[in-house]
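Risk register update: the risk that structure generation would not scale has been downgraded. Supporting records follow, first protein first.
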Amino acid sequence: MARPGVPRAPAAGWKRHIVRQLRQRDRMQKALFLELVPAYNHLLEQAELLDKFSKKLQTEPKDVTLATHQGPWEEDSGPDSNQFPSLATLRVKWNEEEEGLRLVCGEMAYQVVEKSAALGALESQLEEQQSRLAALDSRVGELQEAREQRAAQVREQRAQNAAQRAAYEALRARAGLQEAALRRRQEEARDLLERLVQRKARAAAERNLRNERRERAKQAQVSQELKKAAKRTVSICESPNTIQGDGFRERPETLALAAEPESLENEACEKWKRPFRSASATSLTLSHCVDVVKGFLDFKKRRGHSIGGAPEQRYQSIPVCVAARLPTWAQDVLDAHLSEVNAVCFGPDSSLLATGGADCLIHLWNVVGGRLEANQTLKGAGGSITSVDFDPSGSQVLAATYNQAAQLWKVGEAQSKETLSGHKDKVTAAKFKLTRHQAVTGSRDRTVKEWDLDRAYCSRTINVLSYCNDVVCGNHIIISGHNDQKIRFWDSRGPRCIQVIPVQGRVTSLSLSHDQLHLLSCSRDNTLKVIDLRVSNIRQVFRADGFKCSSDWTKAVFSPDRSYALAGSGDGALYIWNADTGKLEGSLQGPHCTAVNAVAWCYSGSHVASVDQGRKIALWH
């Protein structure tokens, strides 16, 4: 017996459940026998009544025999003869009641059989329910055990979640500290970059100042020596190399400076050959020499934009293709990169090809016998390559990247030589200028920058009102195509934009003809336009059914002889137009199953290269 105040064991619950089930079974069976018990009681009453009648009938025949031996006169002698029924009447009544009781007994027996069958069915159902109840009880026990296990797992999981939450909070706090440290490092890097740029600018200014001082000192020294020489009497003989005087000897530096201009040298030689010895004549001649030298120095000053500035060094001109050959079929098709290929460019000798892609690599290919052979892989780019260009000598490769910088490689060296950093957004174009050691880049930060490659220094920044998608360079001009559907022209010797030509659609690429008289632009309105730079007007507009400019970096090019315009379409085909008539020469369907991003035409005019968004490069012949 349980003590008061002490909680019962958990096992008492199933006992209560069994008691409830037994009570419910008693109620169900009692309800089934409620009809059977009254009928059975009635049957017992009828049986007792029948038993009484049977006993009575067993005693009555003796009385009847006595009555039959009496005479007829004895029938009416008794005073109570009319009070009892006759024997025949009783017998009939007894037979009737017996028949009725027999029928009732039959019905009762039939009902007993039916009730017994129903009772057997109910007992079988009860057994089934009891077995089912036992199975359910075992199932309940299993579920309770599983519930306890799940509860234990939930508790463990909650403990793990709490530990992970604490670890997450710690990592979040650490990440916040690292992010703050990263921002500080970035600010320090920007400050260091600005200081480096300022230091380079100061170094360049100091160098220019030293050169200016040196040139001024040299000029002053030459002027003094020439003035001294002009004051002395000099005898000039027939030989131009012999100068006699009172101990006067011409310094080699003076002779070198005096001999630089060809006109000055000719004039001096003619005067030296004259057979006169007058001091006044000699003085005039030397004074004139001083004036000429001063004028020559002033000319050098104006040409170099600073005193002592060196003349511009230009690349040797690339041979011009007389007649380009139209491509007809793809000679070689390769998977050039691991992902999308964005840029392609031929070297000036047409035997070297460069491709740049979204895998941050530049591959150099040799064009041998109409096939592409891997030459070298240039590494070190910090982002996807958007533009590739060879310098006119073919010794350097310049690439624009999504890492807010342009990078310079030397052909033959796998690692980057210089990084031109200073843009604040993706660099979309990078091109060499015709002047040595100079380049131009365009970016989505709405700027165009000129670079001094010797010092990796930005010499000029041009702010524009729109994204720059491509740039090309002429002799003294920079042309940029923008997202606001305009082409802008910049004089590299002046500070401002000199001309703006509007076009329909965002400009995706620019191509300058070899004679620098025509400009080809590709735009998102699915057209190519030829601009005559002599009159600054659109001369031709190229369209074609099926041609689609699929992206903001789709590139179109002139053929080397400017006879044709070539562009790749979003359906993987190459379209060629006649640049003079504007007629579509044809479309090349080939290995490209995705949009063509860029095309290139070699300088010899014999091959065309195309790259697409599906990693492929095709060489056409």
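Supporting record for the second protein:
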Amino acid sequence: MSKDWPGWPAEDAERYHQAGWWAGETFSAALGRWAARRPEHVAVVDHRRRLTYADLVAESRAVAGGLADHGVRRGDRVVVQLPNVAEFLTTWFALQHLGAVPVHAMPAHRSAELEHLTDLADARAYVTTDVHQGFDHRTLADHLAAARVRAGREAPLVVIVGEVGDRDAVAYDRLLAAADPAVPDLAVSSRDLALLLLSGGTTGLPKLIPRTHDDYLYNARLSAERCGMGPDTVFLAALPVAFNYSWCCPGALGTLSAGGTVVLARDPSPDTVLDLVEAERVTSLTLNPPLAGLYVEEIGFGGRDTSSVQVVDVGSARLPDDVAARVGPAFGATLQQVYGMAEGLICYTGLDDPDELVTTTQGVPMSPGDEVRVVDGEGRDVAPGEPGELLTRGPYTLRGYWRAAEHDAVAFTPDGFYRTGDLVRRLDSGHLVVVGRVKEQINRGGEKVAPAEVESHLVTHPLVEIAAVFGVPDPLYGERVAAAVRPRPGGPAPDAAALSVHLRERGLAAYKIPESFTIVDDVPLTAVAKIDKAALREAVRP
């Protein structure tokens, strides 16, 4: 076990290995094996270029050589914040060749999240783009480096995909000119840390989720099998590929493990995605519920050829049953519901499940090694069909977060079950139906928002005394972010525009900023003197 994160107990790790779930392979070795099958087959397509499997290996090794020339070593953590471009994959595998650890950051993250991630991971480097969707990430890199220096810490190496400009950073293209792209094979164990994913975060800024080569390769391989992927699969990532969902459920990694082609959409708009479906003859997509609803409407207008699509996976938030019933017929494909978490457990409906299960449940755990309990508030197992909190452990579900021992004591049971915070019902068939949340986290169309984090920024506004942030129902996103604010005594009430500007200036990601603010004279309290958010939610419900 690492001092930074608890691994699996030795007896469980050996059991997973003996069962064949853990293959004893690293991602660097796996990429070489995948490329050897069909080196000239197209592996990655973005809006600028196409890379074969041989190209992916060659470029990732060249980037690894360049990063090594700039001091990146085995075990170093590197924050990667890139949109859906081929360089996400080449950089990610370059770090695997070096035995370094990519830390996934979302394109929408801003200074508040990135400073936190860089500090928590003690990142050696930061890889980003120049401009994406009108936002200049280079200024964000400057801010991040300056903040680290002010805190008395070493500024990270900054690598920029695109134009560097007049700043202390390395252009990605310079890494490709490395003198020695033949990176030596390192003594990396398949049980070593392979990457750090972001938690949704329920009480503040995101925590980091450690994933090993063994468990994450198993996640990719088994997901690809459950989704029917093979060498002819053409998978389209509409959501950011940095999401665990788009990356490995089955996502880009599952597609590569099956020998297929990954198509990266530069944005998730219906025009962009459906144009790519036609042009690339896409066979598989992963969507969230809002996107699924938008695409169903766009297809309904006619003039779209989706005949190549075989499977549409929808997950990251609860898919309403009425929308679920329309997805398959609209695309002329099989709908597959996906439920899971970056912490591990993934569930899929079966490709041959009856429509009733596909449109009303969120699937069954994908591995025979997944252990699942549904419990009441006292930790007692509930009767089949009754709602309760989902607990889980297994060969690809973490046993503890990165540098979060105090939180782990609450997030896990003494025998290693992860408390998901999701309320579910388990049917006799084993299918799970998600019915709500135990934790306070807001799920805005798959984007997770921790109310406590937003509240901590709101109360820094000079006119705000108390702030309460909570989710309210939304027909498109499932939930949207709302806030109730009590002004300081005797002072004027802030307006919504001023509060939104304040949060943006604090460096908060746009999706976390409340979409409605309600000014209240009094804040209701529960019997234990906590803010009664249920009462506030009812008061502001449209």
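The chain has 18 helices and 27 strands. On this basis the risk owner (M.S.) recommends closing the item.
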